[in-house]
Amino acid sequence: MQTLEENPHNIKINLAKILTNLLHYLLPWTIPTLIIISWQLASINGLIESTILPSPWQVVQTTITSLQSGVLEQNMAISLYRALSGFVIGGSIGFLLALCTSLSQTLNLLLDSSVQMLRNIPHLALIPLVILWFGVGESSKISLVTIGVLFPIYINTYHGIRSVDSNLIEMGHSYQLNSWQLFWHIIIPGALPTILMGVRYALGVMWTTLIVSETLASSAGIGYMSTNAQSFMDMSTILMCIMIYALLGKLSDLMAKSLETSLLNWQIKGGMING
Amino acid sequence: MHKLVKRLFSTIFLVFIIASAVWGYTLTREDSSSSLETITIGYQAGDPIDIAKTRGQFIKKMKKAGYKVVFKQFQNGSAEMEALASGNIDYARTGDTPPVTALASGSSITFVAAGSSKAKGSGIVATKSSGIKSISDLKGKKIAYTSNTSSQYMIMQVLKKAGLSTSDVTLVDMSQSDASVAFAKGKIDAWTNWDPYTSSAELTYSGAMIVTGTTVGASNRDYIISGSYAKNHPAASKALIKYLGQDMTWANTHKTKLVKMMTKSLKLPKKVVERMVNRRSYSLKAVSTKATSEEQAISDSFYTDGITKKKVKISKYVLNLK
Amino acid sequence: MADTILSIENLSKKYQGKVALNSTNLKIKNGEFVALVGQSGGGKSTLLRLIAGLEPMTSGTISQNNQLIHGINSNTRVMFQDDRLLPWKTVRENITFKKPKNSETAEVVNQLLERVELQGFADAYPASLSGGQRQRVALARALFVNPEILLLDEPLGALDALTRSKMQKLILDLWQERKMTVILVTHDVHEATKMANRIYVVKNNKIEATFENPLAYPRTDATCTNLSTTILNKIIDQD
C-alpha cells in the first residue's frame, strides 16, 4: 500500500490528493450502489414483481424486523459459533498435519498422498457420511466446516514450510539453535506469509461450507433461515441472507487482511519507526 | 496514535466476535441437566408437529410423562428417512410417499400414526395462461412435480384417470422452491403439489386447481414414522399419539388462532394460510386399515411403474399398540 | 604475536563419493588476513564451511587454539554473499539474535551500527534497506559476538563497484581496529591482493599455491596489479 504523504506547502496538490484518495475509497462501491438504486427504481415502477424479487427497501424492512425480534442476532451468533469452532478445529488439524508432513520425510511419505486424495472430494459428497458418523446435531455441522477448512490450511502450511529459505535455516544452525528454536524463530515466521494466505482462503471456504451444513436437519443459523425461507418462497428473507453472506465474507476478508498487515508488517513497511 | 486506535478497535472487534460465538454456543445447548428420556422428532415447516411445537402444550405434557422432546426441522421426507435409518431421530412426520420408497429400498421403518386426509388441498394447479380447464387439457403440457413426494403419486393417478401416458405430457421433476418460481413466471403450465403451495399458487399467482386428490383417491395423509424406537418404546409412542392427537383436536377447534400462528411462522399471506387450514381437518391416530390400504396402493403403483424395485406388504410395518 | 590460531591437517571432504577437498594442510596465525582464491568448484568455499563447522569433515582435523573443532565452530562467524538477515526481525533484533536484550547489548549494537554508518536504522526491517546496507548489518551481526576468526564467503559479490570498494575499506579498518583474524573467500583476485596478507590459490580441491603479500596499507590498485597478474596466471594455468 502506497501512503500518500501530504504536502502542507502546496494546497493545490493537497486537494488533488484528497480527491484521488476519495475516489479510491468510493470507486469499489459504485457498481453495487448503482445496481441497488436501479433495482429499487425497477421495483417501484413495477418492472420487477415483488413476489419474484422484492425491492431493496423490502429487504431492509425484513432485516429490521428480524433484528427487532432477535431472530437474526440469535441465528448469526449460532452460525458464528459453528463457523469459528469448525475453523479452529480444522485449522489446527490442518496445521499439525502439515507440520508432520513437511518436517518429517517418513510422515510425508505416509500421509501426504492420502491427504491429497481426500482434498479433492467435494464436501457435499461427504454429507451422508457426516450424518451417519456425527448425527444431525451440532457436531455434524462443525465437522463439515472442519473438513472444509482443513485442506487450504494444510496445503499452505505445507508449502510455506517447505519453501523457507534454506540459507536462513543454515544460519539458524550456525547459531546453534535447537530444533524448537529453529522452528519458532525461523521456520514459522518464514512460512507465515503463505500460511496466512491459506487462512484467508479458508475463511471463505468456512462460510460456504457452513451454509451447506446448515441446510441439513438444522433449526438455527443463517443457512437454516435461508433454506427455510426458500421452502416458502420468502424472497425478502432469502435476499437478506444473501446480503449477510456477502457481508460476512467481506468481513472475514478484512479480518484476514488486517491479520496480515499486523503480522507481516516487516514485509510491507519500510521500518524506520523512530526515523 | 493511529496505530493505537486501530489496535484498540481490532481488540474490541475480536472480543465482540468471540462473545457472539460463545452466546451462539449457549443457544445451541439444550438443557441437558434433566434425567428425562430424550425423544427427537423430525418435522417439516408448517406440519402438525410444527403446530404442536409452536403451541407448546405437547412439550409440557411429554415432560410430565417423563420425556424430553427435541425437535429437528428437515427440508423434505427423504432427509427424514435417512435420519431415522441412522438413528439420529426417533420419530418423523412425513407425507405418504417417503415411507413407501424407504421401505422398498430396504429401510426398516414403522408406521406409528396416521393423520386425516388432505385430499382437498392436494392436486394440480394450472397457470392462468396455460388454458387448462380440466385434466384432459393436460395433454402436451409441461407439468412440474417433485419426486419421492405425494405429488409423484398424484400425477400418476391423474394421468391414469385422464387416460394419458407419461409420453403425452412433459413431466419436470423440480424442487418446491424451483417450481414455485417457474410457476410464477409461467415457465411451466401446471404444478402438482399440496398445501400451502397449492393455496399459494391459487391466490398469489392466480392459478386454478383443476383436480384434487379427492377425484383420484390420493389422500396425502400425514404419517408419524419411526425406526426401531417406536417398537422398543411402546409407552413413548402411546404418549406421543395421545398428546399429538390432543393438539390436533385443538387445531380443529381453534382455526383463527391456528391461522394467526401459522401465518407468522410460515411467513405466508394470511389468506393462503386460511384457505389451507379451512380445507382440511387435523388428526393423528393409530394407523387405520383404510390408511394402510392407501399406502399399499401407492406402494403397488410405484412397483408396477418401476419406480421402486421391491414389493412391500405395508401392514407388516404398521405399529400395533394394544 | 605470531602464534598459530588455526591449524588444519589432512583435511578432506567428500560429497556422495565426490572429492570436494583433498588432504589439505593450512596454518593461519593470529591476526592475519588471508584470502582463498580460485575458480568456483575448486573447493575454497568448502574449506571455509568446514572451518565454520557448517559441514562435517570426511577426514583430517581442524584445531583452533590447539582445540579440535567438532560441529559448529562458535568462535567464528560467517558472512555470506546473501545477507541471511531474518526479514521479520529488525536490524537490532538481527544483530542481537539469540542474545539477551539489555542496556549493555543495546549499547554495543548502537556502537556497531555507528561504526558501519547505520545509526538510526536499529528499528528498521531489512526489507527497507539497500543491498549494501544489509551487508553492513550482516557484518555488524558477525562482529557482535567478537569472533576470533571472521569468515567471509564472497561477502561483496552482489554489490556494485562503488559500494564494494567502500565495504572493502570498512572491513580492512575493522580488522585493524579489532585485531581479529579474517579469512576471505573470493573469486576476485584483485580484491584478495588489496586486502589480504597472504593469498592461497585453491584449485583442483587442494591448495595449489601460497603468495605472501607484504604491501603496506592502504594499498592502491596500482600497487597490487603485479601480484594480481601473477596469481591470476596461477589460477588459469593448466596442469
TrEMBL record, chain A:
The keyword Nuclease does not apply. GO terms for cellular component: plasma membrane. Residues 72-256 form the ABC transmembrane type-1 domain. InterPro entries: MetI-like (IPR000515), MetI-like_sf (IPR035906). CDD domains: TM_PBP2. Keywords: Cell membrane, Membrane, Transmembrane, Transmembrane helix, Transport. It is a multi-pass membrane protein. The chain crosses the membrane at residues 22-42, 80-99, 120-136, 142-161, 182-203, 229-248. Belongs to the binding-protein-dependent transport system permease family. This is ABC transporter permease. It comes from Paucilactobacillus oligofermentans DSM 15707 = LMG 22743. The lineage of its organism: Bacteria, Bacillati, Bacillota, Bacilli, Lactobacillales.
UniProtKB/TrEMBL annotation, chain B:
One of its GO terms (cellular component) is periplasmic space. Pfam families: NMT1. Residues 38-269 form the Solute-binding protein family 3/N-terminal domain. GO terms for molecular function: ATPase-coupled transmembrane transporter activity. The keyword Signal applies. Keywords: Signal, Transport. The keyword Hydrolase does not apply. It is found in: Periplasm. PANTHER family: ALIPHATIC SULFONATES-BINDING PROTEIN-RELATED. Belongs to the bacterial solute-binding protein SsuA/TauA family. Part of a binding-protein-dependent transport system for aliphatic sulfonates. Putative binding protein. This is Putative aliphatic sulfonates-binding protein. It comes from Paucilactobacillus oligofermentans DSM 15707 = LMG 22743.
TrEMBL record, chain C:
The keyword ATP-binding applies. Residues 6-229 form the ABC transporter domain. Gene3D superfamilies: P-loop containing nucleotide triphosphate hydrolases. InterPro entries: AAA+_ATPase, ABC_transporter-like_ATP-bd, ABC_transporter-like_CS, ABC_transporter_ATP-bind, P-loop_NTPase. GO terms for molecular function: ATP binding; ATP hydrolysis activity. PROSITE patterns: ABC_TRANSPORTER_1, ABC_TRANSPORTER_2. Pfam families: ABC_tran. Keywords: ATP-binding, Cell membrane, Membrane, Nucleotide-binding, Translocase, Transport. This is Glycine betaine ABC transporter ATP-binding component. It comes from Paucilactobacillus oligofermentans DSM 15707 = LMG 22743.
